[in-house]
Amino acid sequence: MHSSSHLRTVLDKLAHDGAFRADLARDPVAALAGIGITLNPADVPAVRSLPSAQRIAADLAAVKDKLESAAAMVLLRVSGTA
Question: The pTM is what?
């Protein structure tokens, strides 16, 4: 299982790193392994496409907001104040 930090890392690289985008399109297993994420080759679709870097950047902002909100709720619940 991969963490939310892996998701943020992948989205950040897809939004801002053209070389990573090219590597991911060419060989997703190797590209993800390069950042510490294991992907079963059987899970890679034969036909792949990526959203634009701009779209991913927008999605990254939304994901960060949701993760920060979720983390705050977990802290409140753990502390017993929620």
Answer: 0.70
